[in-house]
Amino acid sequence: MTAPEPLLTVDPRQDPSGPCVIEVAGELDHHTAHVLSEAVDAAPFGTSAVIIDLSGVTYCDSTGITVLITAYRRAQATGSSLSLAGVNPDQMRVFSVVGLDQVFTFHPSVQAALSALHARR
């Protein structure tokens, strides 16, 4: 019997206040990263801020980080705001070790990211 394939769910939605929130849950790895990549490709960079909610992510490998870097590059190219929300301490340590804590904007929750966006207006 083979083990079930790791599951990743990605749920993009437009927050009523404007930003696009992409909720990610499960294992973000080389088997599943394409699901988030498709959501990043479809995200409305250039027309709204984008928040990627990683609070439901249980594992993230280098492929997942590459997708997040792609999202960052799209945001930079279009002048959009990109925030990562809900990054757990283990994942944050990885971001810090590779220097991405100096690149991304992090918030403890989607609500905190939304509040920060509204405070900048």
TrEMBL record:
The STAS domain, residue ranges: 21-117
Domain of life: Bacteria
GO function term, MF aspect, one: anti-sigma factor antagonist activity
Cited SUPFAM superfamilies: SpoIIaa-like
Family indicated by similarity: Belongs to the anti-sigma-factor antagonist family.
Protein name: Anti-sigma factor antagonist
Gene giving rise to this polypeptide: sle_62670
